[in-house]
């Protein structure tokens, strides 16, 4: 082990979450020494990589899981508005940095793609209409359209309505405010900003152990190529290691996670780049989740642009791998089981029967079953046009609450320990889209004494979701419009 290096801040992991926090801290405290430690040879190669997630800029425009139905048939818009506010924080930050010439051409990481909801059957159409009505008056959802007119639907969604049998009631909503984001490119641009400000961004180095000694965190870092070991010492550590987060917190014996368990699920998508199919579908179209299915499994058919090439993506389908990172270890799952979390794992299996049954059904799906699921969206589908690709790993967090085991990791959860000197993000979606708002929350939880001083700068750069909530309709609309103009998010027309 070589000598110990002192840092003001250490960020573990080079994904979009750490990159966002690093840039915010470098704005607020330019004199602080910041080190980012990433185990792979480049940034944004795990969950933040373009093909490891669906690239949806989650803003509540089309995802039904944010708009539950009330018993009286109306729809509760609260969560959709919250996600919309959080996404605006991200949009605002990206626009501010772009305006200052720091993120390069915005079209490399964000594009305008309409977000659409797809309601099927009389009940699905009634839900979609109620959803549209519940959101119609809110400025973040301005301009959202609803239609159940077959001619309009065929114009909005040519691929979806090609060869669709008549007779089933169908409807769609359409928002021109939707986006497709390449979080991998964004991550690399953010870390370039950080490195350009003098931060020490290290690749190919893995944090192997984390320990608290006195008022400092000690991190043992190993170079994966040479095996050389170094130690970092810091008063503040953020663990943004994606699937690697819980194992590191376990190694640090963080009491808050003693009984937490984890369960890895990987995602798969069907993908095509056939030009005639891509040309006939220019949206992200979200449908209803299957009974018992978790929100992450809501089926969607998306136009994606990655590395300048256009594709369609359909899924996700759940698959199983015992690794916690796509480039993790086969032993990850086994090594995570401890006496302290075994009861949680057993209780989660016992108390989530519908979810377990859904996962087993997903894992047993054949290639033909997956094409049949796609045929619900694209009746004219030909299997030979599509390939099955494996996306990122989700490490779902399992907890026990009131004696019941629950899988809570379908959202993201902010964890702090040792008086806020350690912070970590657990769980998956919609983490990338809401990274800026969540990292402002991390700052508030970790540095409560500094927030009053930082507030004016944060309000300019990345206003907290709570701040956004206080804005009137005119301010909201103006902020959205100016961010979209800077990011060159000009809605395109319908597909030909
Ligand atoms: C199938 C799927 C679809 C998704 N779709 C969307 C979507 O459409 N929209 C959206 O907003 N979000 C989506 N998400 C969620 C989104 O991808 C994540 O919230 C986000 O990428 C998480 O970023 P992160 O920085 O926390 O993790 P990551 O990008 O995984 O970064 C963590 C980094 O830490 C590194 N690391 C791990 N352990 C160590 C260690 N010990 N030492 C050093 N480095 C370490 C890893 O190599 C990795 O680079 C999706 C996720 C999945 C799995």
Automatic annotation (TrEMBL):
Pathway(s) this gene product operates in, as recorded in its UniProt entry: Carbohydrate metabolism; tricarboxylic acid cycle; oxaloacetate from (S)-malate (quinone route): step 1/1
Protein family per UniProt: Belongs to the MQO family.
The protein's enzyme class: oxidoreductase
Annotated protein name in UniProt: Probable malate:quinone oxidoreductase
Entry's EC annotation: 1.1.5.4
Any GO molecular function: (S)-2-hydroxyglutarate dehydrogenase activity
Pfam families, A to Z: Mqo
Gene name as annotated: mqo
Keyword Cytoplasm: no
Recorded superkingdom: Bacteria
